[in-house]
Design a protein that fits this description.
With 289 residues, the chain is of the alpha/beta class. It has a single domain (3-159, 184-214, 254-271), classed as Rossmann fold. It has 10 helices and 12 strands. The protein has helices at residues 12-21, 42-52, 66-69, 73-94, 126-139, 161-171, 188-200, 219-230, 260-266, 273-286, and strands at 3-7, 28-31, 56-59, 97-103, 145-150, 153-154, 174-178, 182-183, 186-187, 207-210, 217-218, 236-240. Strands 2-1-3-4-5-10 form a 6-stranded parallel β-sheet, with helices on both faces. Strands 6-9 form a two-stranded parallel sheet. A two-stranded parallel ribbon has the order 7-12. The longest helix has 22 residues, at 73-94. The two termini are 35 Å apart. Bound molecules: NADP nicotinamide-adenine-dinucleotide phosphate. Residues 7-8, 10-14, 33-34, 38-40, 60-62, 64, 79, 83, 101, 103, 131, 150-153, 158 line the site of NADP nicotinamide-adenine-dinucleotide phosphate.
Length: 289
Amino acid sequence: MARILVTGANGQLGNEMRVIAQRNLQHEFLFTDVSELDICNCIEVQEFMSSHRPDFIVNCAAYTAVTKAESDFEKSLAINRDAVKNLALAAVECGAKVIHVSTDYVFAGDAHLPYTEEQRVNPQTVYGKTKYEGEVALSTTMDDYVILRTSWLYSSFGNNFVKTMIRLGKEKDHLTVVFDQIGDPTYAADLAEAIMTVINAERFVPGTYHFSNEGVCSWYDFAKAIHRLSGITGCNVEPLESKDYPDKTPRPFYSVLNKSRFKRTYGMKIPYWYDSLEKCIDLLKEKDL
Ligand SMILES: NC(=O)c1ccc[n+]([C@@H]2O[C@H](COP(=O)([O-])OP(=O)(O)OC[C@H]3O[C@@H](n4cnc5c(N)ncnc54)[C@H](OP(=O)(O)O)[C@@H]3O)[C@@H](O)[C@H]2O)c1
């Protein structure tokens, strides 16, 4: 039995951790979001850790608004870097292991082969830079950490590309979606499974790992699959070039992550993106969302 603190528990991944906790009843979970534990508040974090003494801290909290971050550097840095340092310092004090989530945005997005963990980072956005600085803050403060870099996260919880495409598909008869940005969608339920695989493993092997669903697609292919699986037929989805997309925040053209290290180390079989998307959409239909 382990005591597991989940921060940012009201977000997409945090909610999937709440779901998976129901299948891991041998552990004790403490779910917090900013109103219960503001990870930017160093004193609050230290007090919380010394009174609850978790074995694992799963950090699902982040500043994830990529475009907004461009004009909100301070807040992005506070949540994505400084708060991670707060968690790491408190974890060292109480002997907890930290599982932290990072992003494909640490890379420039100009590769042609899937990114390995050894590859040079070169973030192009405030979000990517501050998330990378969070990785550094963690890895230079403690040894017992796992960083899971992921990409294109979606869930039946929160707002994301899947839910936006379903909504727009019902509202509009025509939609354009970029086809020249390639990546791996990640169902947050599968990422939560990966986190529990790390926690339940016989041996905790620290380090940085890549995790996303298997396979690759463009945002255009992703949108087409979302509409097909949702039974949306009245909306014509057409491919768009990134240069014609109104939001000029840099987006990686190539975001595919090589997951060999995670699979080799933790032995998890990772689902194909289309199969996971189908599961999420079935759930959304059940919830009538
Ligand atoms: N979303 C993606 O496409 C994507 C892609 C790659 C990697 N990731 C990474 O995956 C992880 C999970 O992402 P997600 O999409 O689940 O994020 P999310 O839905 O934005 O959830 C983040 C949660 O953290 C909370 N939070 C913000 N500041 C906090 C603070 N100071 N103390 C405690 N909680 C705080 C947020 O509350 P508020 O909503 O009130 O701010 C929110 O509930 C993040 O590390 C993210 O960088 C995400």
